[in-house]
Amino acid sequence: MNGYFDLKMALAPVWQGDIIRNESLLFTPDPVTGETRPCRLLCAPETILRVCSADLRTEYLPDVDYRVENGCIVRLPEGRLPFFSYDEYFLPQPAEIPIASGSCPGRFVRYDPSGAAYLDNYKAIWDLYTADSATTGAALLTATGDQAEAEFGEGKAVFYQNGTWEFSNLTAADKFAMNPDDLAMIPIYCGVDGEDKAGLCCGTENCWAVNKNASEEDIKATLDFMNWVVTSDAGTTMLAEQFGPCPFKNAKTPENVFFAQANEYVANGNYTVTWAFNWTPAVDDWRAAVVDALSKYTTGNGSWDDVKTAFVEGWATQYANEH
To answer: Within 10 Å of residue 61's Cβ, how many Cβ atoms?
Structure first.
């Protein structure tokens, strides 16, 4: 960790002590007025010690960037506190990649209450996937990922959507033994303005953490192991071979060509398409309804309007249930 972040402090239970540190806030708009809503704190504060950016490097000023009101942090209109506009919500699979945001391409996925913003682009991508495919129609509902992998690995398909982790399966001698020089990973293009400068999609929902309630022996062993992984020759070799590029000084360059291609896009000034699920309301329920509508559309038992309804009205329903 850097000098701005104390791991033990961050992992301490909030009910121990009388100070809550680094509580995360996300400013979003009111769905009716469009104005940025206050963010309620976990507990009503007696004193605010500091309001800062997520990386803890930028400190915001009271009565300039924010004010405290009724147990909430209120973002001031001319303040510097980051916020999301109404158009800049994240959505989960299967929609978070092909539906891009016009206001900030690749960074956010647009939730449009009219349902018309980018769903036509999404339809074009979905039709491409399901019509020009080695497996089509109702057979797609029972097809497996292994089948799709085999269709690509055996040369029956030209395109195959997957992640960097698929490299080892495609190139391993006991699998498909594909030549890395014949493989390329490209963005999913869907006709959105500015996507000619799109790079690859990148993101994660994971992080490293150490349980402060474990024994001191286990804590030390864990921290020693984490240090070994990112500093030793054996550890950094394992990371490069099994995980890919890592943001550490001693990190080795992986042989995975997909990582190299992702880095090349960035080096050429392309933006990285963000992969995140953080703010989808009732993600599993919303996704299940969208997948059901897509399945019916794909087999000819439903219309694209049904997909739009599940996508837009389903989001609104789940959001209302949570708020």
So the answer is: 11
